[in-house]
Amino acid sequence: MDNPGGLQVPQFPAANSQQRISPNVPAGNGDKVKTRAKVGLTPGHSLMDWVRIANQEGRVLNGVKGNIITVTEEELVKHNTVEDAWTCIRGMVYNLTPYMDFHPGGVDELLRAAGKDGTQLFDEFHQWVNIESLMDKCLVGKLRKSSAISARLKDKKPASSTFLLPPQTVPQFKKPVSPTFATPSSSSTTIDGKSPSPVFPVYEGPPKARYDWFQKDDAVFITVYAKCKKIDRVHVITDLSDNRFRGTLYLDDHVYTICLDLSADVQEEVQVRVRDGPVNRVDFTIRKCRPEKWEKLGEPREGDNQLEPANVREMIFRTCKLCDIAEVTHDSKLMTFELPPGTTMYVPIGYHVYLQREISGAIVNRPYTVVVRSFNRDDHKVKEFPAGRYLHLMIKMYEDGLLTPHLATLRIGDSIDISDFEGSFDKSRLTRCSDLVLLAAGTGLTPMLRLIYHTTTGNLLKSSVKLLFFNKTEGDILWRDELEKQEKQYKSFKFINILSDADGSWPWLRGRVSETLLKQQLADVRPTETPKCLICVCGPTGFTQATLKILKNLGYQKEMIHLFTS
Q: Does an H or E element contain 428, and which?
């Protein structure tokens, strides 16, 4: 099991642990919590005992001889007993059997999720737990939706509404008639910024979307009309290759897809414009290779005009080329990948992608947060590898990992499959707060890097940004030089290192995350100052659990805290 920070937490679960009294969300003073029955764990069955056992070299716990396989829903339901229990969490199947006696909620509680999708039950009690880290050695593989389930999703009829009528063919060379919900002209957003716009009421219903099109001699124009709370340019992915166009739009907690084989040859570049309004608009402009009239836009492919919940959607993977490698520490690298020609993907702050590769006949994938290439906007590598076409990933290489030993062998020009992005961080939280506190351990630093970049050198400047970075040794500190330069250049940024296994020459803070340490370092951040302050936490499961508990004990409300988990 990967443990980037090398950190430990006290014996678990403690008598008053939130693992035993688990709310739907971290509870603050006066919050109501949802409780479950307590069980007494036998000696040798604490969380740290589980971590130690699961981390033993050669230990196989997934029930399929260590192979990573694809699991059908029909296969999943067969594993529903205490002697053989599998469950699915966020699309990944885990073998629960070896964990039964270590679960603080007891065997019966685990069996509630056996043989089926346990995501909702898991999130009800453990939304802050990094399941990928805790159950790494129990991973069976990815769940493949059955054709029957897919058919039900595809055939599910939306509520009756003229808004969701299928796209209509539009007379040639004429712009489509505005839909009944159209409003006077609204503002326009590009990747470089947003023009002044009126304030529109926030849409509160479930997302809705449809698309229309028109053409000129030299171009085709596709417009998506979407009702959702918010959409920015970073929520739109475009793929265009061999005249096949895919537009992917993240609309709140849903994903809307356009997928077409276009009627004639087109240029690979797609121009995108996002416009806010009571009904949001996303305009795609595709240039024709030859001036001509098309009889139709193209042939729909599977998934065209489809709106589905993000948590059940199949990930789209693209073959990306490694184009740059930079050493970060003795065991970490900054790797830059180029997206395929015709693909543009801007990844939202704090979101991650999955790297995937076939290893020994099995498909293995792991999540990695997209980072900035440098804090320096004038760095030639920043200009050489612009956002939207390149992804920068900071990866720690684990000798006993499933994927990283293979990533360590990649050379410039090699390829690997990379997915769409996933995540839950709401950028608007940055605009609402004035003070930002970042608590990171090991590679938990990665989502913090873009937060630091945007709140110190970007357009979301804050009164204060404080990073408390927990590591084992001085050699484990990621991007130390860059962070120290940022601290010297920007008075608003404070960089604090804490080491758990420092040598005698280390002059600064030592230890692990503790109530005493956080109380001292957060003395200038009052728990009542919501939403003035935002506290972000990322690291190994034990670190996240301990930090969340301490913050709650110190009185910080759930509205002030964001946990980064994959």
A: helix 428-432
pLDDT of the residue at 192: 42
Which has the minimum average pLDDT: 12-26, 274-288, 459-473, 489-503? Answer: 12-26
* Token pair of 426 as six digits: 């709401």
Which residue, among 47, 141, 94, has the nearest Cα to 541 in the 3D structure?
47
| CB-based contacts of 95-99 (< 8 A; 24+ apart in sequence) | 95/61, 95/62, 95/63, 95/64, 95/138, 95/139, 95/140, 96/138, 97/63, 98/61, 98/138, 99/50, 99/135, 99/138
Query: Residue 293: CB partners within 8 Å, gap ≥ 6?
Result: 172, 173, 215, 217
H/E run at residue 308: strand 306-309
Neighbours of 273 (CB within 10 A): 16
| Identity of the residue numbered 180 | T
Query: What are the Cα distances from residue 293, in Å, to 220, 243, 266, 397, 556?
Result: 10, 16, 13, 53, 62
Task: Please tell me the distance from the alpha carbon of residue 145 to that of residue 149, in angstroms, as a whole number.
Answer: 6
On whether the CB atoms of residues 410 and 393 are closer than 8 A, the answer is: no
Is 522's pLDDT higher than 80?
Answer: yes
In single-letter form, the type of residue at position 109 comes to E
pLDDT (0 to 100) of residue 123? 76
Taking the C-alpha atoms of residue 560 and residue 534, their distance in angstroms, rounded to an integer, is 5
Evaluate the CA torsion angle 125, 131, 445, 440 in order and state its sign. positive
Tokens in use for 133? Answer: 């880290």
Which of 451, 432, 434 is closest to 536 using CA atoms? 451
Q: What is the residue-wise DSSP string for 5-71?
A: T----SSSS-TT-TTTS--SS---TT---------PPPTT-SHHHHHHHHTSTT---SSSTT--EEE
Under 8 Å between Cβ of 138 and 96: yes
Query: Residues with Cβ < 8 Å from 43, sequence gap 6 or more?
Result: none
**For residue range 442-460, what is the model confidence (pLDDT) as tens digits?**
999 999 999 999 998 877 7
If you search the block for the tokens 């050669």, which residue do you land on? 58
Distances (CA, A) of 421 to 41, 89, 318, 463: 38, 18, 12, 30
> CA 261 → CA 160, 191, 257, 270, 410, distances in Å?
29, 27, 13, 15, 34
Strands (E), 96-218: 139-144, 188-190, 193-194, 208-215
**Spatial distance between the Cα atoms of 455 and 295, rounded to a whole number of angstroms:** 49
Question: Tokens 């990573």 map to which residue?
Answer: 68
- Cβ-count burial of 203 within 10 angstroms (0-12 exposed, 13-18 middle, 19+ buried)? middle
- In whole angstroms, what is the distance from residue 110 CA to residue 559 CA? 29
119-165 tens-digit pLDDT = 888 877 776 667 777 888 899 998 987 654 444 333 333 333 333 34
Q: Is the CB of residue 451 less than 8 Å from the CB of residue 462? A: no
Q: Tell me, what's the pLDDT at 166?
A: 39
Dihedral over alpha carbons 545, 551, 556, 557 (to 10 degrees): 10
Contact assessment for residue 258 and residue 250, using Cβ atoms and an 8 Å cutoff: no
**In the beta sheet, which residues pair with residue 250?**
255
Enumerate the β-bridge partners of residue 89.
Answer: 92
Q: Is the pTM of this model over 0.90?
A: no
